[in-house]
Structure formats: structure tokens, C-alpha cells
Specification:
Length: 191
């Protein structure tokens, strides 16, 4: 008689997708996405090593889900930061949330912008509206603060993303990046 290990009980709980995605996101908190394997996700979710293939077609499918879940988290943090404050404060707070996300969750930030996972100009059906949401949140904050031209918004985005990338890579502390972003935005504002 073949006995099934009780350690595989999680597989039968009826929500394999959620268990795998949760395990993958926990792994992403510890290591870069390109270092996470489907077998490792299975171990972390306490399911058989073949179970991830019921949810992810392949490793790229896993990375795509990691990017989508990470982008949803980033959008949520920026939305919360920009809510119920005046326009300039919304632009400063939205950028600060973006910077903090990059520094506090660098692996999530990296997988969002990995061009092999989210192909520029060809995002997944899940990622596309998230990108639009993030651009709308930050664009609306920028426009409301007086930086309404497309060139202005591109400058704001470049400043925010550049500082986030450099800060997450350890080139300077978060406090310095936040201060530089705040000061630069205030200098960009009209009048």
C-alpha cells in the first residue's frame, strides 16, 4: 500500500493557484525572480514538484505572475499615498511610495521592469491595466500639481524611476533619494 505524505495535504486544499502564488511571492521577498524555480515554489507551497505546472505553463509564466502581483502591490501603495491630499503633496507622496517600494521590495521592483518578463509595448492582459493605473495615478498627480505636459510627466517619471533604481541598488540611502525627489519636484513646479 502506497502512503501519501501528509506534507502534501496542501495540494488538496482546493486553491492550488493561490498557494503557489503566495509561496512564489514569499520567495521573491528573499531572492531575485530569476533565481526562483518552479520546483522551489512547489517545495515552499508544500505540494508535489509537478503541481506548479497545473498553474504555470513554464518558468516564464511564473515570472509573469510575480511581475503582475508585484505591480498590483506597487499600484496599491501609490494609490494609497496619493489619496486625500493636495496636488503637490500627492505628487511628492506618490513618488515617495514608488521609491520606498523599490528599496523595500527590490526583487519585486526588478521583476516588474524586467523587459524579458513584461515586454515593452506588449504587456500581458493582467499587466496592461496595471500599467495604465500607475501611469494614470502619477500622471493625474503631476497634472494637478501643474506639470501637465507630456514632457513634464516624462521628466517626473524619469526622475522617480531613476532615483528608485539607483537607491535600490545601494548607491545612496532612501532618505537622500526622498529628499532629492522632493526638492527636484518642487523646483520643476510652475511659479
Amino acid at each position: 500500500m502506497l502512503l501519501v505524505s501528509s506534507s502534501r495535504a496542501g495540494y488538496h486544499h482546493g486553491d492550488l493557484a493561490h498557494a503557489l502564488e503566495t509561496a512564489a511571492m514569499q520567495l521573491l521577498a528573499e531572492k531575485p525572480a530569476h533565481e526562483i524555480s518552479l520546483r522551489e515554489v512547489a517545495r515552499a507551497a508544500d505540494v508535489s514538484h509537478n503541481a506548479p505546472y497545473h498553474h504555470f505553463a513554464d518558468r516564464r509564466g511564473l515570472l509573469k505572475v510575480l511581475a503582475e502581483r508585484s505591480m498590483a502591490d506597487l499600484v496599491s501603495e501609490v494609490r494609497t499615498a496619493t489619496a486625500d491630499v493636495d496636488p503637490v503633496s500627492a505628487l511628492i507622496a506618490g513618488g515617495a511610495a514608488y521609491l520606498r517600494f523599490a528599496v523595500e521590495r527590490p526583487n519585486s521592483f526588478d521583476v516588474i521592469y524586467d523587459p524579458t518578463v513584461c515586454i515593452p509595448g506588449d504587456p500581458s492582459e493582467v499587466m496592461a491595466p496595471l500599467i495604465v493605473d500607475l501611469e494614470n495615478l502619477l500622471g493625474a498627480a503631476s497634472a494637478a500639481a501643474g506639470l501637465a505636459d507630456a514632457e513634464d510627466f516624462l521628466g517626473v517619471w524619469g526622475l522617480m524611476h531613476g532615483l528608485a533604481t539607483l537607491c535600490a541598488a545601494g548607491h545612496f540611502p532612501l532618505e537622500a533619494a526622498l529628499a532629492a525627489y522632493d526638492a527636484s519636484i518642487r523646483r520643476m513646479l510652475p511659479g
